[in-house]
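Mods, move this if it's the wrong board.
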Amino acid sequence: RLLTSNMVDIVEDSLKETTEKEDLWAAILGDVSLSSAKIRLATPKNILVLGDVCSGKSTLIDRLCQISPGKGRRSHSNQGKFLLSGCSLEYRFIDVQDEDTDDFLARMGVWNLDGVVWHRDLLPFVLQEKTVDDTIVMIVVDLSQPWNVLESLERWTGVVSKHVNSLKISEKQRKAMEEKMVKVFQSYQDPEDQSISGGVSGGDGEDVILPLDDNILTCNLGVPLIVVCTKSDSFSQLEKNQNYKDEHFDFIQQHIRKFCLTYGAALVYTSTKDNKNIDVLHKYLIHRGYGLRFNVSASIVERDAVFIPCGWDNDKRIAVLCDQMKHISPREPLKNIIIPPRATVPSSDVEGISGEDDQVFLLAQQAHLSKLPKAPTGTGTGSTIKEKSPRPSLQNPESLDPSKQGAGGGGERVLADFFNSLLTKNKPVSKTGIKTAATAELEELQNK
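Not the wrong board. Structure tokens:
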């Protein structure tokens, strides 16, 4: 019995020592994991926001920068803090905080490029050789004008592609960036259904990565891309003003989703007015930037709150959406079905109204007046006063000489005497003659 009691004590001491060692190793591993997490979070991450003018970029960024993920309240530390605000390139930042403790972890920069394409010359200040691996590109399009969505996406992805190709990075680094994008797409696992993913579990417990479909990531930029469609609350106005149906919105969505598959981009519908998917986008940006936990599943049920993370979508899921279209062919180009209203189409047929030159107008009037019939001349008091001849030319003083004109109306004679008195400097003006003639003309009018 004594031996048995000693053996039990020895076993308990051994187990206690083992437990203490395990706790010590767990603490060491925890410290190492925390240190590595801090190092990862200490690496600066950036978001480059691109989009057309009035697409809602600034309002969206303002909402993202004011979110405190811990308790869903606004972060007062970031309100009103701008660098280069109001310029062609604006800077904001997002506070990265722990969801459980609400502790500050990092600061994520947000660069907002002006919506005019020629400001692309400012991209080297944001997207550089040393920062391209730590930058997320977010392209913002306006859903209130769906006829411009694809054109805007193609324009801004072209700007990014051209700039990334111009960076002086090695082929090894460029290939590593592209492989990283492929791995992110293939290794996605839905939080609710992990069996629907790019990888399946093999017999040895390791994940086997399946190859991508032919139309996925055919345009691999090497940088994470997120497509954000703002103003999803405008669907009701499109139904009212443009007579859109559910099929039209499905048609628009399937075109955007096919575009996102080509670039391996995530898709988010947002509305700052109705507060749709703002928190989801905030968490997803931090997840893509720092690899923090993200437990939000894809959502395509609500037409104005679509969220499709990178790696979830495929042709089969898009085909399900296309099967719901009965009156619109999914193969039709977007511009053939989603036509802009007439008010927004610039008309080239309407010519501008141009004013006629003053000299041309005066010459035309002169020609018109020269064709008018001259007033008939008479003698004595029987001459017609209502019809008057054109005014005598002052350039020819002889035309004002009554001795060469013959007997005309009394009014013409008065004018001739008056102008002759002005042109003739040597001869005194006969005021009595003018007065007499004017008096005679007045009496003649009173008699009639």
